[in-house]
Amino acid sequence: MNYTTKVVQVTNVSPSTTSEQMRTLFGFLGTIEELKLFPPDDSPMPVTSRVCFVKFQEPESVGVSQHLTNTVFVDRALIVVPFAEVKKAKAAPSLMAESGPLPANREL
């Protein structure tokens, strides 16, 4: 299957799991460009579950990583799904120059 995304979302991550543990696990499946764990490792708030986003260099790693779904990691069965990337659109310079509040009532 061809994937256009390079990102997977991993849910049901144990609260005691660290980002380094996630990097080690998913690092066996492909080269990781970026990994974000929410809430972060140093979060002061109590955590019942975590979510992790992993961005690979190759989209093929997304398909391979889905095979980790239902794998028990630490004390929870992971759920791994592809996650659509959102491209940031560049605003046209003319739109930027005209930004601001809407004009008041004008007669036509």
Automatic annotation (TrEMBL):
<dbReference type="InterPro" id="IPR012677">
    <property type="entry name" value="Nucleotide-bd_a/b_plait_sf"/>
</dbReference>
<dbReference type="GO" id="GO:0005654">
    <property type="term" value="C:nucleoplasm"/>
</dbReference>
<dbReference type="Pfam" id="PF00076">
    <property type="entry name" value="RRM_1"/>
</dbReference>
<feature type="domain" description="RRM">
    <location>
        <begin position="7"/>
        <end position="81"/>
    </location>
</feature>
<dbReference type="GO" id="GO:0003723">
    <property type="term" value="F:RNA binding"/>
</dbReference>
<protein>
    <submittedName>
        <fullName>Serine and arginine rich splicing factor 11</fullName>
    </submittedName>
</protein>
<dbReference type="InterPro" id="IPR035979">
    <property type="entry name" value="RBD_domain_sf"/>
</dbReference>
<dbReference type="InterPro" id="IPR000504">
    <property type="entry name" value="RRM_dom"/>
</dbReference>
